């Protein structure tokens, strides 16, 4: 692990050779791998005198790899399981089955010291900086908390001046001032608070940051600042991001890989250039169609730009919501909303496969067409 | 403006009361325990027959009511302080643990809380009075037993509210230990409402102590306590009404001031109430 | 491009720019305007939240009010019906409205409470951001729509049911008969927002104010709901004021756009002009800072700093502190709303498209 506490006054351009090294690194090593990950919740449904239990599957059979210095975006609607997934890999929650490998080691088999190391090297940044900063703590304590805790756990001695230097460095690279360390969170605007949250993560010199919708609660003029900051930090410090989002345009800007989640499953996964050029799964396509236009729509009523709406799609959506809990169904989970469903979709479930690892889809339609290509 | 004036009045009443309690021996003009039987049932000085020697008059044994009131403040405030300290700390700790860990421990504690809340206060007090005999510590124990459940319930509720706050999750994912999380992240953030509850309960305790003393299971005579002073004045309510009315007014003034102060505190400590304009 | 516009119709700025604005307003009266707001200011407890707002909404038109948090956009929407801070309007926090809100020839600000209540819900209705809190969880959706209808006159029970059904049909809720008795928690977020929409259109309003109507919805549901609003608009012929922070929503929905910053409308124009030829540096920067679906730049254009709070006391232009081309004068004097072209107003001393020949800050401003 990296133990240099050496503070840098600011991001030095000398580090930028990292970014050229990034490309080769990507295929060679995975910093984090999820294998057949499942997380189920038991929900009690109560009548007055008797209650029944239902099992809800929030994450189902998820396989995902995050490469070194890579940004993997996880896209999906609310309730698709992306937040549950992020909690699993932050060890805030235990998987029902499946494994998470961090640099080749299974998380469930880590000893206390390795666990502390993992917690230092994998840092979260949450959506809402109004909720993620303890209002009763000074910024300097917020930023250095994970650093101090992990140092204690790994029996590493940190002198006060080392901690102060790291604090000053973290605040500086995230565009805050060192004096800000003495203040309390409520003295800052939303954008500044998110910078503090990022400073906290960066202070540990992490290998991976889990960014759960880091800009969606920010003002529009602040979003670009934060996104740029995240990109710069990645280029300069060399780390991987898991970027959880729902806005495709933002994802396009940030991501190297893109994984689309629907009802706890990954339905499409691939190099983001490829997915953006050619979204394959009907759900991914629906997401793209639902993206709001970038330019004003001319003659709006004549030319129907955007999602085609047939009146039935609304009740379909409700059916889809109802089937979230239906873990017993054997077919494709997207069948209720899918405009291109086939007979086979209700009988068996498509696996996430593709011709290359670069682009995989869990849909029979694309798989059929692949087979046709292969066969003739 | 009006609010500020109220606050100043209320705050000075409370500080005044504490000072009176502390400096009782220097303030009281007479010995509160020894009466001059010749001067018994003297009315307050503003009534006919009253003298400036006994500003608030005397009781049936000729003891100076002002002095008894001053010493009574001492007793009442000590009971308040101790009972709230015990009930508050025990209740809050149990509540936080119960809210944070949940499970069977939580279930047991909450049933205990229900029990404490449903048990008639007076019956409990009489029971303890019979077992231990009336006394100062008896009052503190009974009042604590009655009050702890409210702290437990509130601490539990507040803990439940923030135990999944993002900053607590962040601390967990950083590997912080549970005692550290409770001390550093939970406790400071639930302290506000609990402090407010404590202030509001000062009034409750004074009234409770008064009722216990009135019933004869509180602070035993001749020690002056406001409640027992009212109890003693009961039989003279028509002939010498001041004996009961004056301590009654003292209780009224104190409880009202402290309650108003508690409300102000609630507003100050709660950032959502403090914000004047919501955008 | 816009230079010819400037020479065509020489823009005017002066101390009596109000008069000019009135002239422009009467010019555009050809398009019959349903709502005309002039010099509207709203203050709460002495704090001015929106200041000197001018805009108008024509029949069948959708006007977008775009801004960041604290820009006053929601206050603007609520001020039209005088609903700012209702319930806590006593003491120091008294809400004051100034100016004129002309709706169909009547000034809403001069109306009594009773008259205003008649307008609310019947002629002008609102959709708020969060469908979870806009609906009362203990009443069925049918009775909540009935309530909205009954507020504006007695109706027989059979007609009532019919109108509830037609409201639900208008928002494309399938099988409305079976949905009438459903409770809000039994519906998905998108459905709930449709019910809110049904309540809003149940009295056939002429103006709909939608405050961030899709912010809490998922992307696919958001698109459906916006589409639905457009369908309702063309079906019922109503005007819409849509308050949003999202230029995507504006691009999808609006004919005209008002960009708000620090309690002012800093630019207003038709949607094409706003996107293609923005005159205010803020508008331009906001549009450029949006990530694009089909481009992957190395960096995004971004605006430094944070938006001002209503409590900040700013003397000059509110955007000057963040403006890339701010000149020292900009912090001294606040720019008034000036007409760049017909239907294009901007509050900037140095607008990006075209310059004012009579810019008073340039020293020759006393010419008029």
Describe this structure in words.
Chain A has 376 residues and is an alpha/beta fold. Chain A is built from 14 helices and twelve strands. Chain A has helices at residues 17-28, 82-89, 112-121, 129-132, 139-153, 160-173, 190-202, 220-237, 248-254, 272-277, 282-289, 312-322, 343-347, 364-375, and strands at 30-46, 51-67, 71-75, 97-102, 105-106, 122-125, 208-212, 240-245, 257-262, 265-271, 353-356, 359-361. In chain A, strand 1 (30-46) and strand 2 (51-67) form a beta hairpin. In chain A, helix 3 packs antiparallel against helix 5 and helix 5 (139-153) runs parallel beside helix 7 (190-202). The longest helix of chain A has 18 residues, at 220-237. Residues 1-28 and 299-326 of chain A have low confidence and may be disordered. With 279 residues, chain B is mostly helical. Chain B is built from eleven helices and no strands. Chain B has helices spanning 2-22, 24-27, 65-101, 103-118, 121-132, 136-162, 166-173, 178-215, 226-233, 242-269, 271-274. In chain B, helix 7 (166-173) crosses helix 8 (178-215) and helix 8 (178-215) packs parallel to helix 9. Chain B is elongated. Residues 272-279 of chain B have low confidence and may be disordered. Chain C has 13 helices and twelve strands. In chain C, the strands form two sheets. In chain C, strands 6-7-8-3-9-10-12-11 form an eight-stranded mixed sheet, with helices on both faces. A four-stranded antiparallel sheet of chain C has the order 2-1-4-5, with helices on one face. In chain C, helix 6 (141-150) packs parallel to helix 9 (189-201). The two termini of chain C are 26 Å apart. Mean pLDDT of chain C is 82; it is low at 1-30 and 363-368. At the A-C interface, helix 7, helix 8, helix 9, helix 11 and helix 12 of A face helix 9, helix 10, helix 11 and helix 12 of C.
């Amino acid at each position: 692990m990296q133990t240099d506490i050496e503070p840098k006054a600011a991001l030095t351009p000398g580090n930028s050779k990292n970014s050229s090294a990034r490309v080769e690194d990507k295929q060679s090593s995975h910093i984090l791998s999820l294998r057949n990950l499942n997380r189920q919740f038991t929900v009690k449904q109560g009548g007055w005198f008797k209650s029944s239990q239902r099992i809800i599957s929030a994450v189902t059979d998820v396989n995902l790899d995050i490469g070194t210095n890579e940004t993997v975006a996880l896209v999906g609607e609310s309730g698709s399981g992306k937040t549950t997934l992020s909690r699993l890999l932050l060890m805030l929650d235990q998987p029902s089955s499946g494994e998470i490998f961090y640099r080749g080691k299974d998380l469930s088999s880590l000893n206390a010291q390795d666990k502390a190391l993992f917690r230092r090297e994998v840092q979260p940044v949450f959506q809402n900086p109004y909720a993620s900063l303890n209002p009763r703590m000074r910024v300097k304590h917020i930023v250095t908390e994970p650093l101090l805790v992990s140092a204690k756990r790994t029996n590493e001695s940190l002198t006060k001046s080392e901690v102060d230097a790291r604090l000053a460095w973290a605040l500086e690279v995230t565009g805050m001032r060192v004096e800000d360390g003495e203040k309390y969170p409520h003295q800052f605007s939303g954008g500044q608070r998110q910078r503090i949250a990022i400073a906290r993560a960066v202070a540990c010199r992490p290998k991976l940051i889990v960014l759960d919708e880091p800009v969606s609660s920010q003002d529009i003029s602040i979003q670009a600042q934060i996104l740029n900051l995240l990109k710069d930090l990645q280029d300069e410090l060399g780390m991987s991001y898991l970027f959880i989002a729902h806005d495709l345009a933002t994802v396009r800007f940030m991501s190297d890989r893109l994984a689309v989640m629907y009802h706890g499953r990954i339905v499409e996964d691939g190099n983001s250039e490829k997915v953006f050029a050619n979204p394959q799964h009907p759900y991914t396509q629906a997401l793209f169609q639902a993206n709001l236009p970038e330019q004003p729509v001319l003659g709006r009523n004549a030319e129907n730009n955007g999602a085609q709406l047939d009146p039935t799609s609304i009740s379909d959506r409700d059916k889809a919501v109802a089937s979230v809990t239906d873990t017993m169904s054997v077919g494709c989970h997207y069948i209720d909303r899918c405009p291109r469903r086939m007979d086979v979709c209700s009988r068996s479930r498509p696996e996430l496969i593709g011709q290359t690892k670069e682009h995989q889809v869990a849909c029979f339609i694309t798989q059929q067409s692949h087979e046709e290509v292969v066969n003739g | 403006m009006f609010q500020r004036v109220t606050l100043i009045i209320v705050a000075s009443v409370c500080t005044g009361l504490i000072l009176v309690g502390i400096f009782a021996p220097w303030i009281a003009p007479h010995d509160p325990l020894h009466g001059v039987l010749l001067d018994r049932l003297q009315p307050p000085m503003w009534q006919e027959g009253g003298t400036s020697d006994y500003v608030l008059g005397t009781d049936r044994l000729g003891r100076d009511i002002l002095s008894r009131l001053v010493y009574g403040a001492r007793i009442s405030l000590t009971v308040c302080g101790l009972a709230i300290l015990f009930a508050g700390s025990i209740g809050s700790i149990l509540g936080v643990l119960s809210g944070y860990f949940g499970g069977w421990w939580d279930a047991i504690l909450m049933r205990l809380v229900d029990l404490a809340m449903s048990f008639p206060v007076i019956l409990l007090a009489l029971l303890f009075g019979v077992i231990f005999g009336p006394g100062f510590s008896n009052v503190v124990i009974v009042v604590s037993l009655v009050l702890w459940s409210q702290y437990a319930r509130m601490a539990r509720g507040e803990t439940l509210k923030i135990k999944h706050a993002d900053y607590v999750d962040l601390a967990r994912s950083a590997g912080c230990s549970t005692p550290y999380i409770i001390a550093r992240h939970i406790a400071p953030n639930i302290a506000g409402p609990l402090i407010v509850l404590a202030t509001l309960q000062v009034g409750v305790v004074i009234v409770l102590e008064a009722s216990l003393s009135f019933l004869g299971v509180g602070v035993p005579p001749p020690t002056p306590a406001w409640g027992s002073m009212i109890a003693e004045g009961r039989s003279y309510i028509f002939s010498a009404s001041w004996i009961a009315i004056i301590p009654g007014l003292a209780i009224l003034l104190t409880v009202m001031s402290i309650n108003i102060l508690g409300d102000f505190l609630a507003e100050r400590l709660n950032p959502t109430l403090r914000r004047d304009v919501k955008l | 491009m816009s230079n010819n516009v400037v020479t065509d119709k020489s823009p005017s700025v002066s101390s009596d720019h109000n008069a000019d604005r009135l002239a422009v307003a009467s010019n555009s009266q050809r398009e019959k305007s349903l709502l005309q707001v002039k010099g509207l200011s709203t203050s709460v407890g002495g704090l001015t939240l929106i200041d000197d707002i001018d805009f108008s909404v024509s029949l069948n038109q959708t006007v977008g009010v775009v801004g960041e948090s604290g820009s006053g956009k929601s206050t603007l929407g609520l001020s039209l019906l005088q609903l700012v801070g209702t319930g806590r309007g006593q003491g120091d926090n008294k809400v004051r409205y100034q100016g004129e809100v002309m709706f169909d020839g009547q000034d809403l600000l001069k109306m009594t409470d009773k008259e205003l209540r008649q307008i609310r819900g019947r002629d002008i209705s609102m959709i708020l951001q969060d469908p979870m809190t806009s609906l009362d969880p203990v009443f069925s959706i049918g009775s909540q729509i009935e309530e909205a209808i009954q507020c504006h006159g007695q109706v027989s029970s059979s007609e009532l049911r019919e109108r509830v059904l037609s409201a639900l049909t208008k928002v494309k809720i399938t099988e409305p008969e079976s949905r009438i008795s459903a409770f809000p928690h039994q519906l998905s977020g998108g459905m709930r927002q449709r019910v809110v929409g049904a309540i809003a259109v149940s009295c056939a309003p002429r103006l709909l104010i939608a405050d961030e109507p899709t912010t809490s919805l998922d992307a696919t549901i958001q698109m459906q709901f916006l589409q639905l609003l457009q369908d309702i608009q063309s079906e019922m012929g109503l005007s819409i004021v849509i308050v949003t922070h999202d230029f995507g929503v504006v691009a999808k929905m609006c004919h005209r756009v008002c960009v708000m910053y620090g309690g002012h409308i800093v630019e207003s124009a038709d949607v094409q002009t706003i996107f293609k030829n923005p005159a205010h540096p803020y508008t331009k920067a906001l549009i450029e800072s949006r990530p694009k679906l089909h481009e992957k730049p190395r960096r995004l254009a971004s605006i430094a700093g944070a938006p001002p709070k209503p409590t900040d006391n700013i003397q000059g232009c509110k955007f000057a502190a963040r403006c890339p081309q701010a000149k020292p004068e900009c912090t001294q004097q606040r720019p008034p709303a000036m007409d760049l072209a017909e239907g294009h107003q901007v509050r900037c001393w140095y607008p990006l498209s075209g310059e004012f020949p009579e810019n008073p800050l340039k020293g020759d401003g006393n010419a008029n």
